[in-house]
């Protein structure tokens, strides 16, 4: 998100879309469609409310609507869409056990992060149940008017807060009763192997190279008053593309290896 360059934004969006398709299959179409909507909305918002640049597309009531504003909004839409897709992919891949393994040097932080990730879907589901229960008590009719909707929202939030506090107390008492100790050594099904070290080294090297190129200005792009590429390092763009495709290639290779081992058996 720190690269204000449409080439990098487009490459990130392509890699994020590919990763989403690999992880979700047909269900990725909805997420990709939502990304298209985000790009369109952000582009239109910046086009109609930001006025700068020399390439005027049309003038309406002494207001110039420029290509630069439209293109900058399009770039920002790609940035937001790719970021959302990457976080969606991360939420699909990273579970509580992986978090505990990654932060095993800080078990309390690992526990807190895993519990937060578990609370979010649980609270969303509970909020839906609370809303449905309130509608059932009102005969299936939703509250009308601003005051009624605000009152219903406050009541739902109050019930959800009580549920969260009560659930936290129950969880804490349960952990205490079971003798939870963050300093106890735990076993896990993950092991840091040589190929993991190689993967980490390659990822860090690619990321560092792209970051250095950004710092020294080799990935500079100008949006106003004219649109042009100030400096673009082709090797940096290639490295960024490879870095973005690494999760996709890894997942496809793992799937291929699994199917090959099953066919051989």
What does this structure look like?
The chain has helices at residues 6-24, 28-49, 67-93, 96-102, 107-137, 145-177, 194-215, 234-264; strands spanning 56-60, 63-66, 219-222, 228-232. It has 265 residues and is mainly α. The protein has a two-stranded antiparallel sheet. It has a two-stranded antiparallel ribbon with strand order 3-4. Helix 1 runs antiparallel to helix 2, helix 4 runs antiparallel to helix 5 and helix 7 (194-215) runs antiparallel to helix 8 (234-264). The mean pLDDT is 85.
Please name the defining characteristics of this protein:
7% strand; 265 residues; globular; mainly alpha; two-stranded antiparallel sheet; two-stranded antiparallel ribbon
Return Rg in Å.
25 Å
Q: Estimate what percentage of residues fall within beta strands.
A: 5-15%
Strand order of the largest sheet: 1-2
Structural class: mainly alpha
Quaternary state reads: single chain
- Overall 3D form: globular
Largest sheet entry: 2 strands, antiparallel
Secondary structure tally, helices: 8
Distance N to C terminus: 45 Å
Mean pLDDT across every amino acid position: 85
Sketch the topology as an H/E string, one letter per element: HHEEHHHHHEEH
The share of residues in helices is over 70%
SS elements, strand count: 4
Which consecutive residue ranges, at least 5 long each, have pLDDT under 50?
none
